[in-house]
């Protein structure tokens, strides 16, 4: 668990981060979003002490990070940045092995970890271990950069605009890769982005910053239905809010229990998003559809009115 308590950074008379407090639960992804100059990257770098706080504390599992030398702290926290930061003169395997070698891991352990990470990211070790960064695509470089950050099996991964340099299609794939890796290793991730769509796609919780202040920190659906102020409402996209919310909710969340009435057409899976369920209702031109669970077991019905009620800001 990462706990930020009144974390503040000042440069002279300028306050870049202003008394930010938040908790990142173990095994979750928290995303910090805001425009340029909002203080989000400085906040991230105070966690691994690349930037020293002016006041306030950061604790990890109850231990103040200030109690440990900065270089030792950073060896136990993964860090991935925009542009990958790969060493051009080192192979993929050597890049991933950078910190394990500094820590004196045995060669066999390093080789096994490199192979495990390459396979986890869909990069065949036999094909990619010996390549150099310039021989990789942008998406492959990004995956190697994240693999390097995870090399020492850290419990925490900090990511600063990690996908910002990728084109939209590769970016979406990189985001899905990250979700798969996070589920596999259970890593606690704090990610900084200026892209609200990315925040909603990745975040278990989202922190919105502006002018160094934390305006709101909560689950994606909370930001959509109960934005803290007009700025948060604008950032989350007021015109798209209902559709964003529907994409976060499942058909099973709005099912009306009971057997579907005779003649109820079609069916949607309970795990389908309400946005997809709405598309199915509109495509069929009906006002209700059956909802099924495991083994196609009927759970009830989903009505057009029920879907629209769920998508309406409250």
TrEMBL record:
* GO-annotated molecular function: ATP binding; ATP hydrolysis activity
Q: Where is the CBS domain?
A: 255-314
Q: Name one GO biological process term.
A: quaternary ammonium group transport
Ranges where the ABC transporter domain occurs:
2-236
Q: Which domain of life is it from?
A: Bacteria
Entry-linked InterPro entries: AAA+_ATPase (IPR003593), ABC_transporter-like_ATP-bd (IPR003439), ABC_transporter-like_CS (IPR017871), CBS_dom (IPR000644), CBS_dom_sf (IPR046342), P-loop_NTPase (IPR027417)
Q: Does the keyword Repressor apply?
A: no
Identify the keywords attached in UniProt to this record, alphabetized: ATP-binding, CBS domain, Nucleotide-binding, Transport
Provide the family line: Belongs to the ABC transporter superfamily.
Q: What is this protein called?
A: ABC transporter ATP-binding protein
Its source organism is Alsobacter sp. KACC 23698
